[in-house]
Automatic annotation (TrEMBL):
InterPro entries: Chitin-bd_dom, Chitin-bd_dom_sf, Pan_app
SUPFAM superfamilies noted in UniProt: Invertebrate chitin-binding proteins
Name of the protein in its database record: Chitin-binding type-2 domain-containing protein
Gene source species: Brachionus calyciflorus
Gene3D superfamilies for this protein: Hepatocyte Growth Factor
Source species, domain of life: Eukaryota
């Protein structure tokens, strides 16, 4: 009897701790009890967003067979309480990380394949599939990312998206600032004085393959140029009505847009 109990306990332990947790959710798992309410939804993302809209929801399970979303209410739930259940997806919601939609997918500096997804004002931690890295400007996992914003080793130094005078020190696990007048160079991995080696080419109307990196309000066109020069991925700008938009060039899943008053960064 004791042997049978030991075997069952070992199987349950192995199933739980061998789950492939992709951040705060995993496949083939479930949480028992603490049911809040349920609803039929199209996919796991909708189930997560539904949980975020309910203040008492702290974890959830999505059943693939009938697309049933089950919200659960234990506020101190842990990943270790999940059990193995085939064709189910379960996850834990973290309400402590607040975000804004302006930068929807920030990377996780300690890992090239991890990132946060901003869902209804809160961050959801996630990981890319095997052999893929996260690209913060495309907002997707792909096999082409250079991983300038994730630590490759314990002594690495990596950039922070759109923060040109800051970098992440992987060894100290801290965000550090460059000295005044210096910018962090993503390739050289150190703070350097920016040198204007490039000029912009004006094109009144042009179709170009691109990805929008960011936009902000500035009151002079030159400030738009300066911003682009300081952002590693920036190749194209558009300045109109005091709004500066900076773009990168993308070959993968890009959209072709027709903008007036765009400037292209000339090749060095």
């Amino acid at each position: 009897m004791n042997l049978a109990y030991f075997v069952i306990a070992f199987i349950v332990f192995h199933q739980v701790y061998s789950m492939n947790w992709l951040g705060q959710y995993a496949n083939d798992c479930d949480f028992i009890g603490n049911d809040l309410e349920s609803k039929i939804l199209n996919n796991i993302d909708q189930c997560l967003m539904y949980c975020f809209t309910k203040p008492l929801c702290y974890h959830y399970t999505f059943r693939l067979s009938d697309k049933g979303c089950f919200l659960k209410s234990k506020n101190d739930i842990s990943l270790g309480e999940a059990i193995f259940k085939y064709q189910h997806i379960c996850g834990v919601k973290d309400r402590t990380k607040v975000c804004f939609e302006m930068i929807d997918y920030p990377p996780v500096p300690l890992s090239c394949n991890s990132y946060y997804n901003c869902v209804t004002g809160h961050y959801k931690f996630a990981k890319c599939d095997a052999n893929k890295l996260f690209d913060p400007f495309l907002g997707e996992c792909n096999s082409h990312s250079e991983c300038y914003h994730g630590c490759r080793n314990s002594t690495d130094k990596v950039g922070i998206p759109l923060k040109t005078n800051q970098f992440y020190d992987c060894q100290a696990n801290l965000i550090r600032n460059c000295s005044e007048g210096l910018s962090f160079d993503l390739k050289e991995k150190k703070c350097l004085k920016p040198i204007l080696k490039n000029m912009f080419e004006y094109k009144k109307t042009y179709n170009f393959s691109n990805v929008l990196l960011a936009m902000r309000k500035v009151f002079e066109e030159r400030l738009c140029f300066n911003w682009c020069i300081r952002v590693f991925y920036c190749k194209i700008i558009q300045y109109e009505n005091n709004i500066c938009k900076i773009f990168g060039e993308s070959r993968n899943q890009s959209q072709y847009l027709n903008y007036n008053n765009v400037y292209f960064l000339r090749d060095k």
